[in-house]
Every structure is written in C-alpha cells, then in structure tokens.
C-alpha cells in the first residue's frame, strides 16, 4: 500500500511537472484588444478567457502538436495547429464574422416582409389590417412605392410595366394564374389568402437570377412551415363566410381554409352600375399539408376556386348592354421539399401544376379558354462560410393554352399555344466585410421560337455607409415570353426584354425605415400588332420598345407616436413605350406620373379597437382622345381614394371588423372608351370607364376556437 | 521512461476525466457567481467541447447568456448573446431530444427578445412560447421549472390583456411545492427557480 501511494505521488509529480505555458494576445484586425475571447486546446479542459487587454495565458500538460482554438462572438473562430511549445506570446488577429442582423444586406429593388426579414416593410398583419385592402395581399402591396394604382384592374402594375410583367411564386414555385376572374371595371383580387403565408418578399426590380419570366417584378410568398397550434377559425362576412382549421399530429400538420362569397345580398342593398343576371360568386379552398423529416421539410399546397357571374354592362359600341357570362375554374397544386444534405448543401426542390378553365359567353360568342401549366424546379444552396454563399439550380416551365371561339353563326376558330422553357441559373453572394457585399448571378434559358440561348446577367452591390444606412446598386437583364393573347395568333414572336438599373438608399433606425430608390428601365422587343385588337390575321412583330424611369420613396414609422403606426409612399414615374397597336412612343394608359399613399393604424386600448385609415392619390392617366389627331394626348382627372376600417376586440377570441372604401364618394374615372366608328356628325362618342361601385362597405365577424384562449384572429385582420 | 509516460497518461485520463468535469463545472459556476458571465460561458463552452455527449454544459452556455441578455440594452450585443444561446440549445437538443429543461430554456430565449422589444418580437415569439409551455406541461407536469415558467408566462399575458393575474398565484404556489419533491440524480442537473418562485409569490400578496 505504501508503495502504491508512493508510486501515485510520483506519477502525480511527474505528470504535474510536464507543463507548458501557452500565452498571447488577441486583437481585431485594427489591433484593438478583444477581452473575453475563449482560448483553449481542442479536446482538453485546458483553456482560459482573454483579459481586458486581450491577453491570455494558461498551462497545459499536453504535449506535441495540438489545436488551439480562439473564439469570440461576432468574430470567426481562429484555429492554430502546432507544437504546444511554440504556442507562446502569440499575436492573434481575429477576422470579423458577417453579422446577418446588423451587417450590410443586398436590398436594392426588394421589400422584405415577414418574420425573418431584417428590414420589414410590411408583415402579414399589415397586409390584412391595411384599410382599403380588405385582406388582399395585392391590395396591400399597392400601398408600397413603385406600384401604380389601376383601380379598374386591381393587379400589380410595377414601374411602368404591365400587370403581366409581375410574376408570383409560392415557396419558390411559380403560380400561373394568380388573380381571380372579375367583371370588367371591378378590381380583381389575389387568389391566395394571406393567412397561410409567413413571409413575403416583393421585388420591384433587379431581382435574383433564381427568378425569371417577369419583365418588371416578382412577388415571393412562403407558406408557414410549422403551425403553432390546432385551431378553428370561423368568419361571417357581409359578402360570405369562411371556415379554417389546423390539425397537428406527430410530425404532420394540415391547415384547410374554405370560403364562399356571394355578392347578391350586398348588391340588393347597394346596387352598382351593372345589371346582374347571375350574382358574382366564388367558392374557394386552400390546404397546406406539412411533414417534418429528420433533415428536411415537405410541404404540399393546393388551392381551387370556382367563380361564376353573368352581368350586363354598357358598351359604347352597342345600344343594348353587353352580356358577359363567365365561369372560371382554377386548380393549383404545388409541392416543395427543403432539406439538408452532406457538407452543408441544402436541397430545395418542387413542382407545381396549374389548371385554369374559363367558359365565357360574350353576347352570343362562346369563348372557352383552357390553360394547363407546370413548373419543375430543383436548386442547391451552400453556405461555404459566413462570407460566401452559392445558389444554383435548374427549372423547367411548360404551358399549354387553348382557345375555342364560336360565334352565333357557328363560325369556329381554335388556337393553341404550347410553351416550353428550360432554365439553368447560378448565383453567388459574397460578403467581403460587414460593410460591402456583392451578389452576382447568371440565368440562362432556351427559347424554342427563336432557337436562341438567352443569357440574363444579374448583379447587385451594397455598401454600408453608416451604422444605420446603406447604399446599393443593382443591374439585371430580364426576358419574358410574349403573352398567350398574342402567341395564339403568331407563333414566331421572340421573348420581350427589359434591363434594370437601380440605385437605392436605405436608412433604418429604431422602428423607422426610410428608403429612396431611383431606377432606369429599358424595354426591347415588345410585341406590336396592327388593327384595333390582336386577332387572327393581324401583323405581329417584336419591334416595340420603351423606357421607364423614376423615384420611389418610402417612410415608415412605428415609434414616434405611441400606438400609431404609419407609412407613406410616393412614386414618381416617367415612362413611354411603343407597343401593342400604338402609333408612337407615348406614356401608356396604365401609367401615372405621381402615386402617393398614406396608411395609418391607431390602437386605442380603452376601446379595445384598432382604427385604420388609408389615403391614395394617383395623378391623371393618359387616354387617346379619338376626336383629336394626336395619339394618347389626353389625361383623366386624378384619382383619390380613402379607406377606413375598425377592428373591435369583442373578446379575446372574437373580433368585429368594419371597413368602408371611398366613404366620401370620389367620382373616379380611369379612362374613356371610344366608339369604334364615328357617329353621323363625324364625331367619336365615348363613355367614361368608372368603377362598378364608387364605395364599398364590408362587415365581418371573426371567431377563433382554440385551446389557447389568448389566440385570436387579430393577427389575421 | 516510456512506460512511465504511458502510465502517467492513463492515470490522468482515468482519474482525471470525471474529476475535471466536476472541477470544471464548479469553476464555471464560481466564475458566474463572481459576475464573470463571459468567462463562465467560455468555461461551459470549453467543457461542452470535450464532453461531446453531454447536454448539460451546453444548457448552461445558453442559460448564462440568456440571463445576461436580460440586462443588455445594446441590440447588437444582445443579438450576439441570444444567438449564442440559441445555437447552444440547438446542439443540446440534438444530444437530448424531448428534454423539457431545454424547451423551457428556449422559451426563456424568446422571452428575452420580447422583454427587449415587445412591439417587434411579441407577435413572433408570443404564440411560440404559449405552445412551448403547453407542450412542456403535458410532458412533465411534475417539473417545478415548467410549472413556474408557464405560470409566469400566463401572468404576463394576462397583464398584457388587462386581466386579473391572481388566479395564477395558485400555480406559483404549486410550483413551489414541486421544488421540494422534484428529484433528478444527474450531476449539475438544472435546479434554479425556487428563489424566483418565492419572489413572484411575494408580489402576489
């Protein structure tokens, strides 16, 4: 026993004597000491923290070659593999890590919204509480700069572009028919309810190489990954009813939304300018199924809707009202998978299938339109380190459009458009420092019509000029296949083209955002045709061109006034284009020089109420006065609109919502429709294009049933 | 000599292993008590780098940083601390899935963001936390930290919605009882909360 103790003591002393001291100093790249850094030998307990002067010193019994690790928050971890005896009086400079929250971001052209965005312009709640938007994603986005209000249409018109120059994507996969069918002069709505989406990114130009087939803009919607809890949502509205339910079991969840809208009772109370034979009705449903896997997430989204109405509308070319009887059936499914692979690669893949069918009777002409389309996409992303990211992928678009026309004399005409578009893209984000970042990408597609490879370079550069502000620049080249309404009569049309140059300044400070963006956009190869309408026998060409330039300003402030949140948008637009059957390069009828919106929300705790107020102004839009010789030389009066809403929390789970659009009854005119032929005095008669109803009233009651009593649909309003 | 070396090595590894874990953890707690949060966090992190199968040191990396974050006013530093806590919790979760203590710590992380800026983060994390507490209560109703934290959370929500917080005082009392009965033999298993429960209960009266 004695011997053992002696032996142990000997061992102890021998081992204890074999000590090496490791020491040094840790600084940043400017030589400023870093206190509190964690310094240790990997795989051992030997280590320490640096002192106030960045110095460290500790002893180890390890021998030979070891790895010394030095780490500190906001810096990249430093590792040194060497013999421990060499590790003394080290001078270590740590390299700054890229901070995703406070570092520079590549923002030119894009409004991020949602939980993950650093600079949030609008979140889901905003979309649904914006007075006047009545829960429509697109309606709320029209309060952002860069968009033009085209009241009789309702779709997104971005920076002098037509509505179909904006594409919408759900979980990265394209939506082919994003808007509901609506009668002429009634604004359409987006098909998708904002409740199922957690993040939105709206780009008004210069967007990533991952997206294409859009000359002006992309809107990216992401469905919620993980619902928080099971709940049932019931809504009863003046125009219909809705039911939603979310179920969660194990690694699965399913959310379903059903709604039915019928305008008949409303039109009974507030008749509009139309004669309704069959009231406007929409039945729609959406479902998202999610399944969590070990390393990934699978989502399946599906939506259908059925729209039907028959309406008699005045038309200057007919003595009697013109009858439109329209039935639209739309089905959209999309699945997506996102998961981690080995070596930090992330795989995202997905596919969408869209079926849309329009059965129309216009007076005695029957028109059937069927569009079948799919999109397949696979992309791989890798973050090499906090400085370099790569995003690369392939995708394939295919669509088939068929139109059958039959008039009262049984004259029949069938046209078909088949489009195939394979694409490959790659893009890299490089963060040189926390102040300077570059995005560079290339998108390459094959156009079957012209048998050409189309190459679209995209780039954007951002520099942080101060703690709260940054400037960025973006450039991009964009292609988009000509619309079906042209291609059905002319097969040989090339894709249209646009180039964007964008300069952006952004200032964010404590609940306030200021953005100013100026841009120049050049259009080429726009489709032209002769005659009044694109039709069989028209002479089509790609000889059109145009430009758009302007300034967009956005200011949002949630902090200055207590319980008040407001934002202001202003856009100046100068644009001219020669396209369609235009006689010259002029400002098109959907563009306006000035667009202004003010959105405010005021929460009054004592009244348990949120009040919303939205004002929008659009300067006069051009129209062609056929009684003058000059083309598109007249302008409408300016457009004014006010939206008011009131959300009242009856109880924590019950909300009453009232909204009024245009309570002051502004008489807005979007343009004039002229007769195709002059009257007996040689004068072209005209009629004003006006909204079907000047004002709109909406009342709804929303009720959430869940085990968690604190949840309510306030988030949904 | 070679033999001596090998023996020496074996000796240090065998006897030293469990001893250095204990010593290391104790030293880290001592540092924390002295108010040296960064040093304590570093120490826990160094231990976690060796004890690659043990969730406890990672748990404490998170805990130290979250507690520290509650008194942090600078957003950049706050984010760094909470992000460190978050990554540590993610790693801990991989080592010990369905661990109710880690769940509670995740909720604490979220609460730190809400406490910093309720207007911005209240909506994002509020619903998440409610769900976490529901899940944790279902998993381990006998855990005093689960009982205390969910009661405190419900009190906070009631306060926010202008409701009476008194009904939740009973839950705090119950949590306090659980502290006397709850046992876990794992060394350094989380044991905080009793003092806090007494504090909250005192404010009830």
From TrEMBL, chain A:
InterPro entries: Beta-barrel_TonB_sf (IPR036942), CarboxyPept-like_regulatory (IPR008969), Plug_dom (IPR012910). Its main location: membrane. GO terms for cellular component: cell outer membrane. The keyword Signal applies. Residues 1-18 form the signal peptide. Residues 133-213 form the TonB-dependent receptor plug domain. SUPFAM superfamilies: Carboxypeptidase regulatory domain-like, Porins. Keywords: Cell outer membrane, Membrane, Receptor, Signal. It is found in: Cell outer membrane. It comes from the Bacteria. Pfam families: CarbopepD_reg_2, Plug. This is Outer membrane cobalamin receptor protein. It comes from Pustulibacterium marinum.
UniProtKB/TrEMBL annotation, chain B:
InterPro entries: TPR-like_helical_dom_sf. This is Tetratricopeptide repeat-containing protein. It comes from Pustulibacterium marinum.
């Amino acid at each position: 026993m004695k011997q053992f103790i002696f032996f142990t003591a000997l061992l102890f002393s021998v081992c204890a004597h074999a000590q090496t001291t490791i020491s040094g100093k840790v600084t940043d790249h400017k030589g400023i000491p870093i206190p509190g850094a964690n310094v240790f030998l990997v795989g051992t307990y030997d280590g320490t923290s640096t002192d106030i002067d960045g110095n460290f010193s500790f002893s180890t019994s390890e021998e030979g070659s070891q790895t010394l690790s030095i780490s500190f928050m906001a810096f990249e971890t430093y590792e040194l593999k060497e013999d421990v005896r060499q590790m003394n009086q080290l001078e270590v400079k740590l390299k700054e890590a890229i901070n995703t929250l406070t570092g520079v971001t590549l923002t030119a052209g894009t409004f991020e919204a949602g939980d993950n965005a650093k600079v949030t312009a609008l979140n889901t709640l905003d979309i649904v509480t914006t007075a006047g938007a009545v829960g429509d994603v697109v309606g709320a986005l029209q309060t952002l700069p860069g968009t033009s209000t085209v009241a009789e249409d309702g779709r997104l018109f971005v920076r002098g572009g037509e509505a179909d120059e904006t594409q919408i994507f759900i979980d990265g996969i394209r939506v082919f028919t994003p808007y509901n069918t609506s009668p002429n002069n009634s604004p359409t709505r987006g098909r998708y309810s904002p409740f199922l989406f957690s993040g939105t990114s709206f780009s008004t130009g210069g967007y990533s190489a991952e997206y294409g087939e859009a000359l002006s803009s992309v809107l990216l919607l992401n469905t919620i990954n993980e619902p928080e809890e099971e709940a049932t949502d019931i809504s009863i509205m003046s125009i219909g009813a809705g039911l939603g339910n979310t179920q969660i079991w194990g690694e699965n969840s399913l959310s379903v939304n059903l709604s039915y809208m019928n305008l008949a009772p409303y039109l009974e109370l507030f008749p509009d300018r139309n004669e309704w034979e069959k009231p406007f009705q929409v039945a729609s449903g959406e479902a998202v199924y999610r399944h969590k896997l070990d390393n990934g997430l699978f989502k399946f989204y599906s939506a259908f809707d059925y729209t039907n109405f028959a309406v008699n509308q005045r038309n200057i070319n007919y003595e009697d009202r013109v009858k439109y009887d329209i039935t639209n059936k739309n089905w959209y499914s999309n699945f997506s998978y996102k998961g981690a692979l080995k070596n930090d690669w992330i795989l995202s893949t997905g596919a969408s299938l869209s079926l849309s069918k329009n059965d129309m009777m216009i007076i005695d002409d029957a028109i059937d339109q069927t569009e079948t389309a799919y999109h397949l996409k696979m992309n791989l992303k890798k973050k090499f380190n906090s400085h370099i990211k790569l995003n690369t992928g392939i995708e394939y678009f295919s669509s088939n459009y068929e139109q059958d026309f039959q008039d009262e004399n049984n004259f029949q005409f069938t046209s078909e458009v088949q489009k195939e578009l394979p694409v490959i893209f790659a893009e890299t984000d490089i963060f040189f420092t926390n102040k300077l970042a570059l995005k560079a990408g290339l998108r390459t597609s094959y156009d079957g019509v012209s048998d050409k490879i189309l190459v679209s370079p995209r780039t954007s550069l951002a520099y942080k000029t101060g703690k709260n502000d940054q400037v960025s620049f973006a450039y991009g080249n964009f292609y988009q296949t000509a619309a079906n309404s042209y291609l059905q009569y002319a097969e040989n049309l090339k894709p249209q083209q646009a180039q964007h140059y964008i300069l952006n300044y952004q200032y964010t400070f404590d609940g306030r955002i200021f953005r100013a963006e100026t841009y120049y956009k050049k259009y080429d190869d726009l489709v032209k045709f002769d005659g009044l309408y694109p039709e069989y026998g028209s002479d089509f060409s790609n000889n059109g061109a145009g430009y758009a330039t302007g300034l967009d300003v956005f200011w949002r402030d949630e902090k200055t006034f207590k319980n008040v949140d407001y934002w202001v948008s202003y856009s100046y637009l100068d644009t001219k284009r020669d396209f369609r059957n235009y006689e010259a390069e002029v400002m098109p009828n959907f563009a306006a020089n000035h667009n202004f919106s003010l959105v405010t929300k005021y929460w009054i705790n004592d009244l348990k109420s949120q009040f919303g107020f939205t004002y929008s102004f659009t300067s006069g839009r051009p129209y062609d006065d056929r009684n003058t010789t000059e083309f598109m030389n007249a302008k409408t009066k300016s457009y004014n609109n006010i939206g008011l809403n009131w959300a009242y929390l009856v109880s924590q789970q019950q909300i009453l919502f009232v909204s009024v659009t245009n309570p002051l009854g502004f008489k807005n005119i979007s343009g004039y429709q002229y007769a195709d032929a002059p009257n007996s005095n040689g004068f072209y008669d005209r009629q004003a294009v006006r909204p079907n109803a000047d004002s709109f009233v909406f009342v709804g009651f929303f009720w959430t049933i869940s085990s968690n009593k604190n949840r309510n649909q306030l988030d949904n309003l | 000599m070679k033999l001596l070396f090998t023996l020496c090595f074996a000796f240090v590894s065998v006897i030293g292993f469990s001893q250095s874990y204990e010593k290391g953890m104790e030293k880290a707690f001592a540092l924390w008590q002295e108010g040296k949060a960064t040093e304590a966090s570093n120490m826990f992190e160094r231990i976690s780098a060796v004890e690659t199968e043990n969730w406890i040191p990672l748990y404490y990396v998170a805990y130290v940083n979250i507690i520290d974050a509650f008194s942090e006013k600078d957003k950049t530093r706050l984010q760094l601390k909470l992000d460190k806590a978050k990554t540590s919790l993610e790693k801990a979760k991989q080592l010990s899935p369905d661990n109710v203590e880690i769940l509670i710590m995740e909720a604490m992380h979220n609460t730190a963001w809400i406490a910093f800026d309720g207007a911005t983060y209240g909506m994002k994390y509020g619903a998440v936390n409610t769900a976490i507490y529901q899940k944790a209560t279902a998993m381990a109703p006998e855990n005093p930290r689960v009982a205390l934290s969910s009661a405190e959370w419900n009190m906070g929500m009631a306060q926010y919605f202008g409701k009476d917080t008194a009904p939740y005082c009973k839950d705090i009392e119950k949590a306090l009882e659980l502290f006397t009965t709850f046992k876990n033999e794992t060394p350094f298993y989380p044991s905080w909360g009793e003092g806090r429960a007494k504090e909250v209960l005192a404010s009830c009266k």
